[in-house]
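Quick start: read one record
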Amino acid sequence: MKLYDCSLYYDEDLILNARLNILNKYFDKFIICESKYSHSGREKKLNFNINNFPDFKDKIIYVVSDQEPDGLIYKIKDEKKIENPENFRHNAIKRIAFQRNTLMNTVNEIADTNDFIFYSDNDEIPNMENFAKYKETNDIVIFEQKLFYYKFNLLFDRIFWYGTKAVKKKKLINFEWLRQVKPKKYNFYRLDTFFKKDKYINLKIVKDGGWHFTRVISPEEIHQKELDAEHHDEYRASNKNPTRIKDLIERRVIDHDHLADSKKSKYGNEYKLKVIPLEELPEYIKINWKKYKEFLDLRT
């Protein structure tokens, strides 16, 4: 049985380097997909450079998604004509799903039936030390992860994050399907589990399942990335900028409500982040903390 780590890439070399070093001993190959289009629809240059990751040249398979998906409501040149903000989200979701599913071509070429296929966004890193007992399961495996903002050790402890998901190749429908599987075990009498492809009775939830290191980049980079990300419509409406983001980091807070109703803006209310000791971070980051010093909150 082989293990394949599949993820998307935009331009985040810092977090990808950490990901590769943390996961290297567990995975046979890293399959990384970059798109020529941002989630907002802006055509972008390809940023991935294999020479930035010399230790992993033999394990990385780089894939390019070079088309726009079918079913878009509008093209980016018509953006200013859009009256319904939900159309922005519709297009972003379509683009993300298309990029994720581009990974299927490579998986179908190289993976065997009983190989385990993992999917995470680049900044969602599974704790593989807790996966060993699930290697023989045919169920979907979901990793319950801690959520960090801005710095590797600034924890948002209000929720867990269910980012990394894995399943054997023979059970994999596509990557967008795997991404959308809900992290909840439903009872056998829930008839909707027979008809919906995001609800399942048989799941394995990996506790202490890793780390979601989100927005571990500079305030300026956060701003630019949010303008092109899935929720770019909400971000633009919030009128945030690098100065505002820097202030949030300094005060160790986020202004993003993960539990807000999906029809309401998630921006506005502030929530405190908790500084955790380096001992709770992945071994590679602990050992190389000086390398990541800029992205650790070491204030007393």
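The domain at 3-212 is CATH 3.90.550 (Spore Coat Polysaccharide Biosynthesis Protein SpsA; Chain A).
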